[in-house]
Design brief:
The chain has 231 residues and is an alpha+beta fold. The chain is built from 7 helices and 9 strands. The chain has a 6-stranded antiparallel sheet. Strands 1-7-8 form a 3-stranded mixed sheet, covered by helices on one side.
Length: 231
């Protein structure tokens, strides 16, 4: 479980040092463009203030747009950790946005999603970057705990073999996952020794990984939302 950044529609991958060289347009009385390098540095500062360090980061730029995914060392478990997705632009085309989740997907085709949108803020004249990020990182920490609680609940929730098959049928009938993955999913469920909600979830995500990035993310996100509604 992690964040994924895909640049295949004109954006170019770039490291943080490369962000320093990018030009930032002048602001106006109602609009405050923020240098991409300063934005990432401010976000890192708010993470460090909570004792959280960045362990991996990836960025891409397309004209004035910035896309990024950040992984931290915050309470990483065997399932991974919640990633942070960034999207913004210094040409008024995008608001500053943060997404968090076990599955965060950012693409230069404008796909931007996670388990929680932690921040969405226009570049208005009174934009205080540190205040906005402090709020967003607070949601990151609280939202991450909720994600972990969901997984712990799924691990403890036992499911009968037949109930599992019914849920699999419901998932595929709702077209959450491509139908070609139906038989492999059923075989894995029938062979599973520990029949829990978490195992059922993994029987599907194992095969979702074989899909292309965008459909894989969409399927994972819809699958998670389905399980969150299962009583």
């Amino acid at each position: 479980m992690s964040g994924r950044l895909v640049a295949h529609s004109g954006a170019t991958y770039i490291d943080r040092e490369g962000l320093k060289a990018l030009e930032t347009p002048p602001g106006t009385d109602t609009w405050t463009p923020i240098p991409h390098y300063d934005l990432v540095t401010a976000l890192e500062g708010q993470l460090k203030a909570r004792g959280i360090s960045i362990v991996k980061e990836q960025f891409a730029v397309q004209s004035a747009k910035l896309f990024g995914v950040i992984h931290t060392d915050y309470q990483v478990t065997e399932e991974g950790g919640a990633a942070i997705g960034i999207r913004t632009a210094n040409d008024k085309s995008l608001a500053l946005q943060l997404a968090i989740g076990y599955r965060v997907f950012i693409c230069d085709n404008m796909a931007f999603a996670g388990d929680l949108i932690a921040l969405k803020r226009k570049h208005t004249a009174n934009l205080d970057l540190h205040t906005e990020f402090a709020t967003g990182i607070g949601k990151y920490v609280n939202g991450y705990k909720q994600l972990q609680d969901n997984i712990d609940w799924w691990k403890e929730r036992t499911v009968s073999k037949e109930r599992g098959k019914q849920l699999i049928y419901d998932i595929f009938s709702q077209r959450i996952i491509p139908v070609r993955l139906f038989h492999p999913t059923v075989r894995d469920w029938e062979a599973a020794q520990d029949k829990t909600m978490w195992r059922l979830h993994n029987c599907m995500t194992t095969h979702i990984k074989d899909l292309k990035p965008a459909p894989a993310f969409t399927a994972n996100l819809k699958l998670t939302r389905f399980f969150e509604k299962v009583g």
